[in-house]
Amino acid sequence: MVHALQRAGRRLRPGGTLVSIRPHRTWRPAIAITAQGRRLLVARLVNPSFDRNLRYAEAALDRVVRDGWFRLAGLVPARYRAYLDRPSQIRTYLELINPPRPRFPPGGRARLDELWRSAPPDARIEVTESLVVTALRRRSS
Asked: Shortest CA distance to 54 belongs to which of 90, 91, 104, 100?
């Protein structure tokens, strides 16, 4: 990834900005049921094999800053929420995420199904993904 960031740095004009959007290291994707202005957390999704990839991505960003290719222009945590109408849509939503995909912890899917059966008719499923947006500014040559 360091080489890809360096290549991007070569393409940017001095002062140009590279933006990295990646999952937050500790805030796991969450599944909740929302209805009538209330939100009930069902489960936090797990993805242990992704942690290694995330560590490599963060190390690559740190390295291109340390090596002088870029300077840190900003770092902001963000949340993205998607709303689904029924549990069957969760599988489709998760399949849109690049592998390795997050999954329910043990008992998480059963908890969703149980809570969904007792949810009011206007209930929706909320998928919250926590992200980190990093802006790197290319240094002048």
From this structure: 100
Write the pLDDT tens digit of every residue in 9-67.
999 999 999 999 988 888 889 999 999 999 999 999 988 777 788 889 999 999 999 99
User: Is the separation of the CB atoms in 136 and 74 below 8 Å?
Assistant: no
How many C-beta atoms surround the C-beta of residue 2 within 10 A?
Answer: 15
pLDDT per residue over 82-130, tens digit each? 999 999 999 899 888 777 788 899 999 999 999 999 999 999 999 999 9
- Per-residue DSSP letters for 43-104? EE-B-HHHHHHHHHHHHHHHHHHHTTSEEEEEEEEEEEEEEESSTHHHHHHHHTSPSSPPBP
Phi-psi region of 36 (alpha: psi -120 to 50; beta: other; left: phi over 0): left
| Cα within 13 Å of Cα(111), Cβ side | 14
